[in-house]
Description:
Oligomer: single chain
CATH topology of the largest domain: Cytochrome Bc1 Complex, Chain D, domain 2
Distance between the termini: 51 Å
Structural class: mainly alpha
Largest sheet: 3 strands, antiparallel
Number of domains: 2
Radius of gyration: 22 Å
Order of helices and strands: HHHEEHHHEHHHHHH
Number of helices: 12
Helix content: 40-55%
Amino acid sequence: MKKLLKWIGILLGGLIGLLILALAVVYLISSLRMNKSYAIQVDSVAVPNDSAAVERGQHMAVTRGCLDCHGENLAGGTLIEDPLLGGIHASNLTPGRGGIGQTYGDADWIRAIRHGLDPDSKSLIFMPSHEFYYLGDDDLGDVIAYLKTLPPVDNQPAETSIGPLGRTLYLAGQIPLVPAELIDHAALRPNAPPPGLTIEYGQYLAVGCAGCHGQTYVGGPIPGGPPDWPPAANLTPAGNPGNWTEADFINTLRTGVTPEGHELNAEYMPWPTFGQMTDAELKAIWLHLQSLPAKSLEDNG
């Protein structure tokens, strides 16, 4: 019996040692990637200061989801606080105490929004710049114009820290913690299509939808979401929207209720944000979604 207990102790000790070693490797590799510096060329973008540009920039900030993370007053706050996943805190964008608006110039805003990098050219954490990268110069300039007009709000968000599970999921490609890795910073930037009732403009507006619904919009488990989160819906014609009309689609995003009577939960599907798009913008997105191949999650393999 003593010999058995001894071997069990040795086995447990070995397993614990391997676990500690594995965690050390996870922390080392993830830290190296999260603290990597990027040598990039920051494009010059004209930033207007007229009221019309500020108004357009505010509309973009609202409908692109900036307020969903940074708060109604854009003063930041806590997104995730979990001992295993970590603590992810959105920055205070205003010029108040604790806000980056105190020190950010135009190039800093461009670097952060378009490239997902801080002023030291290190990656921001969990900032979806891989979606904002596609913003055209005019739209980006308007957003920056709006951010520069924010009233100061004193708020010092806590430092973001990533726990062991968060780091493991990141290394496994399940959470896009480091957006700078998802952007080809040296590539020729795509031109933004002109606003209009076109499939191309709808695709441009719907870039952020792919974060939850996938690049092919077939839905499924949300990357990085807790296991109790419902899967994202299939937005291709093979899903419920295939039976909707344009009016049904617009009404769903305006009211949060689908034609089938299902109430969308804003915690998972931020319909109040998208519902503030104009009719023309929603119609363009509808054209884009209707142009997609009818596919199911199984079709993606």
